Amino acid sequence: MLGSLLLVAGLVLALAAWAFLFRRPPEGIWPRTWFTAGVLSAFAVAAMAATDRLTTVVGPISPVALAAGLGIGAAWLVATHIGHSVLCRLFPGFLDQITDLYSLREGDRVSTMVGPVVAMAVAEELFFRGFVQGRLGLLGAVVVYTLVQVVAGKWALTLAALLGGAVWGGLLWLTDGLLAPVVAHVLWTGALTFVWPLRGCGRRVGAADAAPLADGASCDRSPAPLVVEPDPAG
Questions:
Q1: How many structural domains does the chain have?
Q2: Is the pLDDT of residue 166 over 60?
Q3: How far apart are CA 210 and CA 65, in angstroms?
Q4: CA–CA distance from 16 to each of 9, 143, 160, 180 (Å)?
């Protein structure tokens, strides 16, 4: 009974958290991310402790789990870039969605973003994999994780949650612990945000095609322009 009540409360909390993050002006997104990550993490830990599942879910802390997280995180990063290059050619609006997501970085320094990006990745794993997957199983957790992203109003983010949720959830199931999915999620999100961002494709240029981020420099979030190549006959 307690577990069911906590699950319902957690789902309401997650929907409210995503509305708080994405349904407000982009200014202040990083302080809101810190706050949201803290609330989700605290709720997940408390709920798992209250149902005597905290130790079980955290699982073993081992080199094997760490290696699995690093390997799968890197592989999923490469797969994401391949998928992006395909989707932005098939669906013109896909690159616009990606550009909008990268535009959340405008005017912010790398040092300001690293903490909340990592904290949110950890919070999502504690909440959706540790807490929700423990109650609903892998499929149920993927469904919940995907539906929560709908609040953001970005189908690209929803698709990423559907596929990424399956990857992170599969890692939890395979390794019997949170270390591997946390490591993989942090690596994937951090690399896409700071190291290897999704760029334009074909003739279209995305926001991440601006100069690389550097600490102390602002992010260029100009919209993705259409680059027209000159006509050789003209």
A1: 1
A2: yes
A3: 36
A4: 11, 17, 20, 28
